[in-house]
Amino acid sequence: MRGTVPGLPSAVPLTAMLPGIFQEDPFTVRFVGGFDDVLAPILSTLDNLGAYLDPALAPEDFLAWLAGWVGLELDESWPVERQRAAIARAAQMYRMRGTVSGLRDNLEVLTGGRAQVADSGGVAWSVTPGAPFPGQDQPRLAVRVSVADPSAVSVSAVDAVVSAAKPAHVVHRVEVVGS
């Protein structure tokens, strides 16, 4: 939590900006010094604004705010490192949204484990008319997430992520196993 920090010097002391006559008055110096104590954390925050906007350096209580900027909703039970990684990779994940590799990467960041995604579809071309279609005739998706502690990962949360990422007509199965 940000606020006054005892002993934090001001980067721009106001007493030095006073006319010389006021700098000699002890009451005025003490009075204006109170403003320095209040403004020092604000100026320090502004001087370090870049660190507040970097997920790797931002204070922990700023992570939820940063996540809102990139459209993420963080789970408070995640370790801080996983929250930082999810925010840092959010834009890249949006570019890969709707792909098997995008779903796999998203699940790996969100669970901290290893994800395998098996898709029944396929894309191919043929110079022979009437050639068989690639893949299977019924679209299916199988997802297996391997983590150190399967009880620490919510299967319903993984299922919700998969449901949001796949086309509505594709049937899916989710499995969380120990690694």
UniProtKB/TrEMBL annotation:
Domain of life (superkingdom): Bacteria
InterPro entries reported in the protein's UniProt record: Tail_protein_I, Unchr_phage_tail-like
Pfam families listed in its UniProt record: Tail_P2_I
Protein name: Phage tail P2-like protein
